[in-house]
Amino acid sequence: MNPRPIDYNSKPILIFWEATKACDLACKHCRASALLEALPDEMNLEESLSFIEQIKGFGAPYPVLILTGGDIMKKRGLEEILKRTKELGIPTSMSPSATPLLNEAAFEMMKKYGVKSLSLSLDGASSDTHDWLRGYLGTFDKTVNLARSIISEGFTLQINTTIFKRNVHELPQLLKILLETKVKTWEVFSLIKTGRGIDREDLDPQAYEDVFNYLEFASRYGISVRTVEAPFFRRIMIEREKTTYNGGPLYSKLVEETVTLLGRPADKTKGHTSQTRDGKGIIFVAHNGDVNPSGFLPIKLGSVKEKTISDIYRNNETLVSLRDSKNFKGRCGACEYSDICGGSRSRAYTYFGDILQEDPRCVYIPESMKALNSAK
Ligand code: SF4
């Protein structure tokens, strides 16, 4: 039996709440451009608890609330916030930074309030790469050790990796580390120019095609792979069910190295194919209560201090338009994958200043455009 389709116009499956911008790290690609201390306009405890109450407006089963930052461990009133999410039955996951604040006491507090899953960022297979990006020496070792602790404490762990030129050749080695650490989910972000986004490190479209085809291959080793700001991974997953990829040199090199490290994989892929994208199935609430389609798309849709999150999600005109792939332009508008993929709306906005434009990092030429070109 097919699972009941999810109506993304009614509710998201994930609410990302950047509860604070405070963080002791200084990552070069930080979406939040995090700071050492909280900003003066950060929602106070009363406002934070009021926002959490609003989530009930979506009705049960509630979306998963992802507490992120900055470093969520620096959020003032964190324990009261977790207590309230537990009382209301809102499933909550946390995305802390790898700092000394993530310790035994923190794990105990999370368990007490029913947090079952955590995510950590690991952006390289070596301290050279990861520590360079994070801005502090020793963060790579700390993150790998924390990953082991989190799993041994009984939490489900997701590792987040942002791909860029400096780390792309480390993906096979990184996959090996994740498998050895028994990480269940690998969430791979493509770079968006926002916050401290390191623009010169962005890959070109063909390199992305190679990398995401490689990730489809990597998922055959038994790790679930998801992507952020690269919904064309779903197009690739569908294509790979039908045909093999005659990849470019980067793909071949990554596959070859992986087989040398890990042997041949199983045939079954574990790529994740839910049809969410910015503002469709996911929504982002900033530290000050402003609501954006995602953390990478800085368009203000409203504020949870003035309207409820369910009202904004269901009724904001920009968001309603963004969810309908018929409104997309360029290749994404003509594409047979527009509904299940639709391209990164954040990247369209960054490149064209238009949230409805095509995703310039996808190589795909839709069938209707191919037909037009061959008719000329
Ligand atoms: S052209 Fe747009 S909709 Fe089509 S696969 Fe590429 S990103 Fe997705």
Keywords:
11-stranded mixed β-sheet, globular, 376 residues, alpha/beta, 14 helices, TIM Barrel, 2 domains, binds iron/sulfur cluster, 11 strands
Mean of residue pLDDT values: 90
Structural class: alpha/beta
CATH homologous superfamily label of the largest domain: Aldolase class I
**CATH-defined fold name of the largest domain:** TIM Barrel
Strand content: 5-15%
Helix proportion range: 25-40%
Count the E strands.
Answer: 11
So, CATH architecture of the largest domain? Alpha-Beta Barrel
Cα(first) to Cα(last) distance is: 45 Å
Please write the string of helix (H) and strand (E) elements: EHEHEHEHHEHEHEHHEEEEHHHHH
**CATH class value of the largest domain:** Alpha Beta
Main beta sheet: strand number and arrangement? 11 strands, mixed
Instruction: Catalogue the unreliable spans.
Output: none
User: Which ligands, by name, code or SMILES, are bound?
Assistant: iron/sulfur cluster
Name the shape in a single word: globular
Number of domains: 2
Counting DSSP H or I runs of 4 or more residues, the number of helices is: 14
Rg to the nearest angstrom? 20 Å
